[in-house]
Amino acid sequence: MEINLSVTEENYIKAIYHLQQADGNVSTNEVAKELATKPASVTDMLKKLKQKKILNYEKYQGFRLSNDGRRIALGIVRKHRLWEYFLVEKLQFGWDEVHEVAEELEHISSKKLIDKLDAFLEYPKFDPHGDPIPDVNGKMAAQPQINLTDLPVNQLAAVSSVGIQSTELLELLKHKNIAIGTKLEVKKKFAFDNSLEIKIKGQNAFTISQQLAQALFVKMV
Amino acid sequence: MEINLSVTEENYIKAIYHLQQADGNVSTNEVAKELATKPASVTDMLKKLKQKKILNYEKYQGFRLSNDGRRIALGIVRKHRLWEYFLVEKLQFGWDEVHEVAEELEHISSKKLIDKLDAFLEYPKFDPHGDPIPDVNGKMAAQPQINLTDLPVNQLAAVSSVGIQSTELLELLKHKNIAIGTKLEVKKKFAFDNSLEIKIKGQNAFTISQQLAQALFVKMV
DNA sequence: AAATAATTTTAGACAAATCTAAAATTATTT
DNA sequence: AAATAATTTTAGATTTGTCTAAAATTATTT
User: Is B79 among the domain residues?
Assistant: First the structure.
């Protein structure tokens, strides 16, 4: 039942997991960009992962992780986030300097190690960046809903609710092409009037007012 | 100044380090045995390490680490032993189940990580097996001298002093071919009369009495 | 000091993960 | 719906670490 995976394979699985969280179906080019490698290399790996039943993949058709693949990805995410928590809470790293180290630590294979680390840290639910940490069974706490004004720049999030129910607001949202479930990122914050530059995938970026941003709640993705 | 080393290269360096601690000059076959690989593979790696100036090596002549090589080896040993200490003291692993995990953790490259871990652990001097942990500069505490009767089975050690100065004792030591500096291992302990079976490299094992063992002090190697 | 044995090195091959360049397929324009 | 563009895949090469089998060297016997 335990498949042995190389660090490279794990990195592909993790990248595909994150891309499909944001995007649904994943493409060869996206993965190549994410991993700073060439599409041809990605295709080779896709075949390998398909053969190991980690990936549902038909050529030219895009792909997604299988159930097994998702289980493995969650295991890697769990390790990454627990180590980040450890680095910040116990070793006094800054939250902005832990990522690369966690990228290495997440590939340490011992399950016992990670479960004991989890216990030592007293089963934290969120990592230092606010992302939820999967538990032993791969379950994670729901991402808390935050106000759009509090969303970090370049953090993908999905609109989860609107603060007020007014026809005027709905009219504006319709015009801006924003609905519940719309995935967006904040690209810039303007201090002068607290307006935000917003990017929805496949559209050009546009600006929204402070008032509109305050009416929108999102969950990080 | 910072050379990038693969996990494989690091494992070779560590193996050579440990072998030369015990042996002086190291041979291709010894390394192959230690790393469970073939002599031909070792020769390939030796050339590579020589080229990187980590090894003083002339073919057919045996080899030793260069100063740089020793510095690198001490860094790996430092990481291994600090992680072992962490696993036992913080994560409640048994001292006998930490080795394989530490074998993986020792290859995490961040120097900052290991120095912060050292601080978190409050600069321990010895790991759970009693081996000294090198500090940031590669210095380690002298291995404490222990009585031969307390030496664990199969732990290589060097005779460091004798407890009493008698002609009779010296006569016996001469006959048994034991001197200050002689490297030996205890292969068996016999409960009946507390005699020990001793093995000196290149000789057949032989037995010594409890009285003789109590007169000998050793340092682990 | 020859012969034999053991060790070590070379030569050539293989698998994993990558690359470039070209071919195949799908998507988008006009 | 052709033509063009973008994406994806294939084919063939490269690098790293490994292997086996054979050759070279050193060590040990007789």
Answer: no
